Amino acid sequence: MNVPILYEDNHLLFVEKPVNIPVQEDRSKDQDLLNLLKEDLKIRYQKPGNVYLGMVHRLDRPVGGAMVFSKTSKAASRLSDAIRRQAVEKKYLAVVRGKPKKKYGLLKDYLVKDKRENKVYTAQPDDKNAKKAKLEYEVIGSKENLSLLSIKLHTGRPHQIRVQLSSRDLPLYGDQKYGEEVNQTGEQIALWSETLAIEHPTKKEEIKVKSQPPDKYPWNLW
Fold this sequence. Notes:
The structure is a single chain. The protein has 3 helices and 11 strands. Helices cover 14% and strands 36% of the residues. Strand 3 (54-55) and strand 4 form a beta hairpin. The longest helix has 12 residues, at 33-44. Strands 1, 2, 3, 4, 5, 6, 7, 8, 9, 10 and 11 form an 11-stranded mixed beta sheet that branches.
């Protein structure tokens, strides 16, 4: 599988995650991105034994786009800390069914995950298991009762974008988990990790990468 490299140095590896591949090994035992990249590093740099590659964030299996991995433990520690401090810029593109009432918006919710179902729900603030979720969106355009949104994440909760938008009757195109009433089996979820910007763990300069979604429906409506 060809995984495009967006940026690489001694500490960092930015790649464009293909859709429908798990980030790490799961119960499906399908080929996963982390082990795929480790094997690639081993071959390219002719490294004996196990190759270190740290995973500091995730993307859902059906989602594609920009991801960063750490090639050293120092980078892993500093990146994980930056993510905890919300000092990482994450922007996504999403196609939703319907049209938001406002061109710009700030969405705030409390989310709780049902681990047995692997599904996330909105909850009340006083729910002890609920975690605060926050994102900003901007409507780029609307066609065929679909809207293209640019989304900036302030928190990184599981399924956050999908749940926050579907709870406002704006399910993502192709999302069977949170939009089963309007989406068909076989449709590819239209959510893409477009921009990822971090402070380099040793150089202290910003590293910013961009990734564009595939030139196919519904993305190519815009």
